[in-house]
Design goal:
The chain has 438 residues and is an alpha/beta fold. It has helices at residues 2-10, 25-34, 46-53, 64-73, 108-120, 137-150, 188-201, 212-243, 247-254, 278-287, 294-320, 348-358, 389-393, 409-415, and strands at residues 15-19, 38-42, 76-79, 90-93, 126-129, 159-162, 181-185, 206-209, 329-333, 362-366, 372-374, 380-382, 397-400, 419-421, 435-437. Bound molecules: nicotinamide-adenine-dinucleotide.
Length: 438
């Protein structure tokens, strides 16, 4: 099976399938199609399927003309009909891995999509999970479902592995195509064929590890590393404020050390579908072993407290103007979870907005990337249409909550009564008389 698959990969005879056509899945499907593989995308959202089949792109990191051209050529198509899995030789699963209302892993998307794949799994196929999850998901959850649903034997009739997705939406240098990949699979043959497939599709190195669990844990390490380091600067930032020291200046100084230090920055909290959620997958799994991930949990306490801390600081700024936060007009600049993207999942800015409303502020937002939002917690909002000098002057406080580059911050500074810059995005503006930084 191994040699046959390697030959088919080399000659592009493999049909590639991507399950879940979101921020991760669609760029991956496009890369596979660009590498010369007939590619079928699967998604339960018919609106996404229709858009792809009409040649319309909806993900920032995908080039519109690439997608349109691949669809026109017939290399890329999409469907909600899982029976087409029977034609697919390489299935990558890229479905969401969120938390439920008790902050516990919601693995239902992985389970449901694996069940759907198992019903039509082809003998000799490769299956790879790319969603971020707890160590053990591929072997303990997916393998039995695939074997039972298909009647096939893992390692003999099909190959199974895990390869974490590392895409960083909005990153102008590292995209799906040139970011190195890690692959962990069940058995050496599986690792060899799955790695071979990524090698021909992507430009970055492929690093193979001994099992899916190592690859699953590796991804959690990457994201927990960020979570903890952000927790550290958020905690130090609060202390620095009390001590009258600028945390931003401290970080700039620390950055001059050429080894042993990587800069992370404070902010209104953690956002996105990864960094705030993934450590919970690990802490949940750790409990099975009677293990408490105390450092990670402490970091999450600090990061989760940032939105409220930002509101407290806003309260002090208004207080100095002899204004109560209750009834004050506040404009937030940015609800996306980070700069220059339209993704607002788990955005800390939306939590700040909610906290501001709780204390009675009359709050609105402007975001050139997010004209309106509606999240899974039932929260919604609409951006003010235009950021004019007159609009800025109307508010008691302008709060910068995303460091978008396409905002005229100089104009904001010139017209605002007071500014609370939680991202230090106004660092280069000389007149600091109305600016306070987190
Ligand atoms: N977004 C990122 O920056 C990023 C980076 C690295 C890793 N990840 C991980 O990748 C995974 C996917 O994240 P995303 O941001 O692409 O999510 P997303 O919500 O943008 O896309 C997921 C897609 O899966 C579809 N889907 C859900 N259930 C399905 C099913 N049963 N069958 C077929 N399709 C189904 C949804 O309709 C959606 O289109 C997550 O585990 C995430 O943690 C995300």
């Amino acid at each position: 099976m191994r040699e046959g698959l390697l030959k088919k990969i080399e000659s592009r005879e493999i049909v590639a399938g991507v399950v879940g056509l979101g921020y991760v899945g669609l760029p991956l499907a496009v890369e596979k199609a660009k590498a010369g593989f007939k590619t079928i995308g699967f998604d339960i959202q018919s609106s996404k399927v229709d858009m792809i089949n009409e040649g319309h792109n909806y993900i920032g990191d995908v080039v519109d003309s690439d997608l349109a051209e691949l669809v026109k050529r017939g290399t890329l198509s999409a469907t909600s009909d899982f029976s087409f899995i029977k034609d697919v030789d390489f299935v990558a699963i890229c479905v969401p891995t969120p938390l439920d209302e008790h902050q516990e892993p919601d693995i239902s998307y992985v389970r449901d999509s694996t069940i759907a794949v198992s019903r039509y799994l082809k003998k000799g196929a490769m299956v790879v999970l790319e969603s971020t999850t707890y160590p053990g998901t591929t072997e303990e959850l997916m393998k039995p479902i695939l074997e039972e649903g298909s009647g096939l034997k893992c390692g003999k009739d099909f190959y199974l592995g895990f390869s974490p997705e590392r895409v960083d939406p909005g990153n102008l240098i590292y995209k799906t195509k040139n970011t190195p990949k890690v692959v962990g699979a069940i058995g050496e043959d599986a690792a060899a064929v799955i790695s071979a497939m990524y090698r021909v599709v992507l430009e970055g190195d492929v690093h193979t590890v001994s099992s899916p669990s190592v690859a699953e844990m590796e991804k959690i390490l990457e994201n927990t590393y960020r979570n903890i380091n952000i927790g550290l600067v958020n905690e130090l930032g609060r202390l620095c404020y009390e001590m009258g020291i600028s945390i931003w200046e401290v970080i700039e100084a620390a950055k001059t050390k050429p080894y042993g230090f990587q800069a992370f920055y404070p902010g209104p909290g953690l956002g996105g579908h990864c960094i705030p959620l993934d450590p919970y997958y690990l802490t949940w799994k750790a409990r099975e072993y009677g293990f408490h991930t105390t450092l990670i949990e402490n970091s999450m306490v600090i990061n989760d407290g940032q939105p409220k801390y930002c509101v407290e600081r806003a309260m002090h700024i208004l207080n100095r103007q002899k204004k109560a936060i209750n009834g004050s007009k506040i404009l937030m600049l940015g609800v996306a979870y980070k700069n220059d993207i339209d993704d607002y999942r788990e955005s800390p800015a939306i939590r700040v907005l909610k906290e501001l409303k709780k204390v009675g502020a009359d709050v609105q937002y402007y975001d050139p990337w997010v004209s309106e939002f509606k999240n899974m917690y039932g929260e919604s909002g609409k951006s003010i249409a235009e950021l004019t000098p007159e609009a800025v002057a109307e508010y008691d406080l302008i709060m910068v909550t995303a460091a978008h580059h396409n905002v005229n911050y100089k104009m904001v500074q010139e017209n605002a009564k007071a500014i609370f810059d939680t991202k230090n995005v106004m660092i280069d503006i000389k007149d600091r008389s109305n600016i306070e930084v987190l």
